[in-house]
Amino acid sequence: MKATAIAPSNIAFIKYWGKADEALRLPLNGSLSMNLDATNTVTTVEFSPVLSRDEVTLLDGDFSDKEIERIIKSLNLIRSKTNTYSFARIATKNTFPKGAGAAASASGFAALTVAAFAALGITLSEKELTVFARMGSGSACRSIPDGFVEWKKGNDSDSSYAYSLHPSTYWDLRDVLVIVDYRMKKISTTEGQTGVKTSPFWRDRVAGIPAKMAAIKAALKAKNFRALGRIIEEDCLNMHHVMQTQNPPVYYWNDVTKTIMDSVVGWRKQGLPVYFTIDAGPNVHLVCEAKDEAAVIEKVQTVAGVENIIVNRPAQGTHLIQDHLF
Ligand code: PMV
Ligand 1 centre from 15 Cα, in Å? Predict the structure, then answer.
């Protein structure tokens, strides 16, 4: 049987950086994100007894050997848990560049997990699907539930899962993704995170997360945009501080990233409620309310070095579709 899933990428408002268990991809801290509707991955999976190996194709580019290895590792896990002995044919495509800090691994492993189980005819609960996706790429678990999502840190594999706090229709926010460099990041998040404990600040960051999670959930509940934005920006700076003080340092920003960060502070002073957050790459996510989208875009267009602007709305979680890729 053939199955196809579409998965949104997600932007973390409270970010995860560092693992408590490398193999299971259990995080050092809980995190919270919003699914993004314009940056997604579509994946078709078919298991077939006639195949003599897994065949993985990225339709809009090339996978590195390392990436293929990681996909096959995920498939092997699914095969071993379901007593499946056939190889699979997989085709996948992204609506955005992978490796540019726009969380292609999140949407990628979410789509792969949901499509693979459907292709096997096995129905899992949403919670179980998030656990499998997490083992492919931590942040992928947050792309499975709807809208605004919390990933619980947990203390073993079953308790480290993601669930929807609010549906995508709950709050009409925007994530204006400003692309300042399309090239692949030099240090993968998997590699970068292994050094987290070399930062003298990692403990403080992890210790501060429960209070920050409570505060951001309260801001979401009250739809208090300024409170939400302040926490988003604070946590972004916090995470990058840990990254940049690791040994060796993991530094993702470039000059345009920094110009935008400074500009956002200036735009706020002029009365525009917009906040930045940045993942593992130089590109900047600007979070604002729908009413301010046009004003934010107008401001961003004045910054030299911006290559593209992608406007995201809150998206529903990963789901099956009928348009197969082969
Ligand atoms: O999902 P991973 O293991 O590639 O890590 C992603 C980590 C960040 O994107 C930097 C933060 C986050 O929580 O999404």
Answer: 7
Q: How far is CA 164 from the centre of its chain?
A: 15
Kindly list the domain boundaries of the chain, sorted by start residue.
2-168, 173-312
Residue 154 has pLDDT above 60, yes or no: yes
To the nearest 10°, the Cα dihedral for 275, 277, 283, 285?
-50
Q: Is the pLDDT of residue 265 over 80?
A: yes
- Torsion angle, alpha carbons of 320, 72, 38, 217, to 10: 90
pLDDT tens, position by position, 7-52: 999 999 999 999 999 999 999 999 999 999 999 999 999 999 999 9
Q: Name the residue with tokens 């409170």.
A: 227
Using CB distances shorter than 6 Å, the residues near ligand 1 are 12, 15-17, 31, 103, 105-106, 137-139, 189-190, 279-280
**Cβ contact 274:268 at 8 Å:** yes
As to burial, measured by CB atoms within 10 angstroms (0-12 exposed, 13-18 middle, 19+ buried), residue 208 is middle
98: CA distance to ligand 1 center in Å?
13
Q: Which amino acid is at 118?
A: A
86 alpha carbon – ligand 1 mean position (Å): 31
Distance, CA 305 to ligand 1 centroid (Å)?
25
**The CATH number fitting domain 2-168, selected from 1.20.140.10, 3.30.230.10, 3.40.50.360, 1.10.260.40:** 3.30.230.10
Q: Please give the CATH superfamily to which domain 173-312 belongs.
A: GHMP kinase, C-terminal domain (3.30.70.890)
Query: Is this structure's pTM higher than 0.70?
Result: yes
Atom from ligand 1 closest to the CA of residue 14: 13
Which residues, 6 or more positions from 8, have their beta carbon under 8 angstroms from its beta carbon? 35, 36, 37, 39, 40, 107, 110, 143, 315, 316, 317, 318
- Compute the chain's Rg from CA coordinates: 19
